[in-house]
Amino acid sequence: PESPFILNHWMPQLCAYSRYADVRERDFQFTWEDCEKADMNELMRYFQGLGYDEIPTFTPKETNIVNLETEYDQEDMTMAAFENWMDEVYIEDDENLYFDDEDFQPENNVFDFNYGLADSDDVTSFKNELKEFYNEHGNETQAWKDKYVRETNYTAVEDKKGAEEFRGHLVVACCGSDQDLELAEKITGRMGDEFGKQVYVETRVYSHARQEENLYEIWLESYDIELLHSRRGAFYNAKQWLGPADVDDKQLDYIVDKVRYMISDDARYTYDLHEFESEV
């Protein structure tokens, strides 16, 4: 707390001012004996020249001795999650873009293969900043650049066998607690053992959700979309969800059997009567 406050331009002055020539001659290297012989009043005279009566010190917030943690209530977390969702899915430029508009391009169609592939404003801004960084510091060593920017290059591998075998996408939606993620890992492993590459399992973590909100939903997107488990439904909508709240071994066996049927040819070529019902 009593550490003196050093202004940012102190170091440039050490590198330029003639009065500090001896410091540069020794390449800024000092021994303990040099420190004991140091003029302890020089810093005071320095700040007096700037109009200070005493050497300023850091505030308690700047010393890193006290760690400030902000507590957020449920309304704050819900609003933050909503704002994040808006940033991810809402595109203001497309708000008034209609199918018969002259500006409507094929990639604006949600069924087009290129839909959603354009970089967002955040990604474009990041790419520009990265390009500027390399242009400005291209002559620096790789070790120096790695202190500020690190890149990981990935190789896209086309899994033809996996594409041929693929039959469905299983989504496990939960909060980020250890017990929920441990269960998701167990489900992923079981699906891998049972179906291999036929079923791709995604664990979708909702970071703003809390454990007490009982969020644990599992659904399969295959020839049809069907909800396979709902912990929240068991607690808050028991009339529509009749299954258990927890995924124990028995419930996991049930989910496996449902997935096995839903990715089969029987499910593919079976039609429900309600699909042909029409309102009169």
Strand order of the largest sheet: 2-1-3-4
The helix count comes to 12
Q: How many E strands?
A: 4
**Whole-number mean pLDDT:** 81
**Which regions have little confidence, pLDDT < 50, spanning 5+ residues?**
none
Structural class based on helices, strands and sheet pairing: alpha+beta
In words, what does this structure look like?
With 280 residues, the protein is an alpha+beta fold. It contains twelve helices and four strands. It has helices spanning 10-16, 21-25, 32-36, 42-49, 74-89, 121-136, 142-146, 160-165, 178-195, 231-236, 249-262, 265-268; strands spanning 168-174, 199-205, 216-221, 225-230. Strands 2-1-3-4 form a four-stranded mixed sheet. The longest helix has 18 residues, at 178-195.
What's the arrangement of secondary structure elements?
Blueprint: H1 10-16, H2 21-25, H3 32-36, H4 42-49, H5 74-89, H6 121-136, H7 142-146, H8 160-165, E1 168-174, H9 178-195, E2 199-205, E3 216-221, E4 225-230, H10 231-236, H11 249-262, H12 265-268
Parallel strand pairs: 1-2
Antiparallel strand pairs: 1-3, 3-4
In short:
Helices cover 39% and strands 9% of the residues. It is an alpha+beta fold and 280 residues long.
Task: Supply database-style keywords.
alpha+beta; four-stranded mixed sheet; elongated
